[in-house]
Amino acid sequence: MAKILRVNMAQRNIIEEEVPEQLALLGGRGLTSTMILDEVPPGCHALGPNNKLIFAPGVVTGSAAASSGRISVGSKSPLTGGIKESNAGTPVATMLGRLRIKAIVVEGDPAPEGWWLLRVTSDSAELLPADDLDGAITSKVNEVLLERYGNRVGIVTVGPAGEQRMAMAGICFSDAEGRASRYAGRGGLGAVMGAKRLKAIVVDPQGAPGVEIKDQPLFRKGGRKLLDALQTHAVTKPGGTLNTYGTDALVNVMSEAGGLPTRNFARGNFEGANKIGGETLAETIAKRGGKGLSGHACHQGCVIKCSNIFPMEDGSEHVSVVEYESAWALGANCEIDDLDDVAEMIRLCNEYGVDTIEAGVAIGVAMEAGVVPFGDGKGAIKLLNEMGEGTPLGHIIGNGAAFTGRAFGVVRVPTVKGQAMPAYEPRAVKGMGITYATSPMGADHTAGYTVAQEILGIGGSEDALAVEGKADLSRSSQAASAFIDTFDYCLFIAFAILDIDTGLEGMVESINGVLGTEYTTADIDRIGMEVLRTERRFNELAGFTSADDRLPEFMTYEPLPPHNVVAGVSEAELDSVFA
Amino acid sequence: MTDAGESITIEVALFATLRKYHPAGSDKGPVWMDVPEGTTVGGLLDILGIPAQQAKMAFISSRQGEDDRVIRDGERVAIFPPIAGG
């Protein structure tokens, strides 16, 4: 029987609950968002006693379904003030799935002192004192806990930024080798975990019964079809571009397309793009050798393997993972073109426990204010260290791009609902702008990735600079993403199943195999829309209106080179997305 | 106006798995090269020896371009294989 673990930090007790019927078919984002709407008062303070933090693996997570090792974390966001779901690829996800733990709900008002560790095994769950980990960076936490509980456990933790309740703090999950490197980064969920005074979770998968599969033959049939699609598509197959270059291959693509936000969103192409892009990254990894690795899997069971381990010049390990969003945010967006400086910044973000996107954009805003010059890698590294040390300047930047902009009187602040924009310029990729503006999550590329059609020619081909039809494209992409995040397949399976119909069928058959349902591909949009409506309902009750579904004003009057275009999407078009 | 049969000079940048098709001696990066006036993106692929199915995206001076797009003197053409990420 699947169960929900309810961890009360006030009473420091843990209650095991059966899964109520209305949640039985949900997992991942669908589950966290439904529970947040049901249980968290929308007007509450995100860091206060009434907020909750919910961890939920997807419906198929932990099964043999390819590339499905993802976990959703839901809460009210201290960054946006709205609902938040952020997910990560990690063995912790598959462990919880195999333990049949549908959700871990962390709730209650903790005592103001002391840190706690939640330990979950196949037959127990307990809260243990963790004061020895007070202030520890994430790699230190993993080192101590792997030593204490053995190499096979999965670890969830927050770094100093989460402990200090900074609004850009993420939640760090261990990777396939136990590294502290996989993040549910967005929306400041690490600050919520810090506010609950939960420093870490250790998951021991020994004796796990495995995911219950209602119809094995159907599950296997669907699984094979999806696997075939992933192993065939040029982007996702072994030796394909994701596997060879990682997501960072997008740096050159977006720069050539004039849609790579550069110098705090002042232009759409970056002179130094190739120095931080996937080609140079893969070449550097190969040349330096040693511990370096391209085609690294974030969890066992991933077919795509788009992660990497970036080495120092002497071949020793520097950081995992240099991916597109991080290399862009801390690189191009700050006009920094030194891959080693970028790698060091990613390492510091991982160690202090912050979202690389929010960090890079906040630093870009600070650069705009003249705190350090654009292009100054060492200066940016110093700003990240201020966050780790918890200085007043570190707290300003650590609270995100919007907060930093307000602190320094900056007008050009690229955020929506208080969350920093990721690596696609909304003026040059119109559908992404609509997704940023209207997603209940705030500016988020994974919420509805229209770049697939607008730039990459996957799942169709659209003119990136045209507005017509993009409200529909964004809406359907947002619904598809909400669906995939609910079952917690990796979103990257979308590249294969957008182009290969049998892969799409295979995904739905795998889900039916697990749940015993009779969903068809036509249900994808319906289920995704239900999740989105739940999330928008929470935001509405929290006080959000259509005025929050807008891009920053400067993008409506400042033309973006090289295309020299403004945002150009009317308020009526934005409001039509969920009308 | 130039006469038919004259050549134009364009900048060509190939990425990811297509970098190996850069003209000899320029495998690292963008190269300026002469091509006949009227050359299209598809024609450029032929000149460079890139099988059409390997080239997924072309950007000509930052604009998306299909195979039949005629390249003009001085333009930069960036060509990519299928790529995606997030």
Oligomer: heterodimer
The proportion of strand residues of chain B reads 25-35%
Which architecture of one domain in chain A does the CATH hierarchy give at level 2? 4-Layer Sandwich
User: Strands of the largest sheet of chain B, in order across it?
Assistant: 2-1-5-3-4
Class computed from helices, strands and strand pairing of chain A: alpha+beta
Q: State which percent range the strand residues of chain A make up.
A: 5-15%
What profile does the largest beta sheet of chain A have? 6 strands, mixed
CATH superfamily of one domain in chain A: Aldehyde ferredoxin oxidoreductase, N-terminal domain
Classified by CATH, the class of one domain in chain A is: Alpha Beta
Count of distinct strands of chain B: 5
Residues in helices of chain B, as a percent range: under 10%
Low-confidence stretches of chain B: none
Question: How do the strands and helices of this protein lay out in sequence?
Answer:
The complex is a heterodimer of chains A (579) and B (86).
Chain A: E1 3-8, E2 13-18, H1 28-39, E3 53-57, E4 70-76, E5 83-89, H2 91-98, E6 101-107, E7 116-120, E8 125-129, H3 138-149, E9 154-157, H4 160-163, E10 171-174, E11 180-184, H5 189-195, E12 198-203, H6 216-232, H7 241-245, H8 250-256, H9 273-276, H10 278-288, E13 293-296, E14 307-311, E15 317-319, H11 324-330, H12 339-352, H13 356-368, H14 377-389, H15 392-398, H16 401-408, E16 415-416, E17 419-420, H17 430-438, H18 451-454, H19 470-487, H20 493-499, H21 501-515, H22 523-541, H23 554-557, H24 571-576
Parallel strand pairs in A: 1-6, 7-12
Antiparallel strand pairs in A: 1-2, 3-4, 3-6, 4-5, 7-8, 9-10, 9-12, 10-11, 13-14, 14-15, 16-17
Helix pairs in contact in A: 1-19, 1-22, 6-21, 11-13, 12-14, 13-16, 14-15, 17-19, 19-22, 20-21
Chain B: E1 7-14, E2 31-36, H1 41-48, E3 57-60, E4 63-64, E5 76-80
Parallel strand pairs in B: 1-5
Antiparallel strand pairs in B: 1-2, 3-4, 3-5
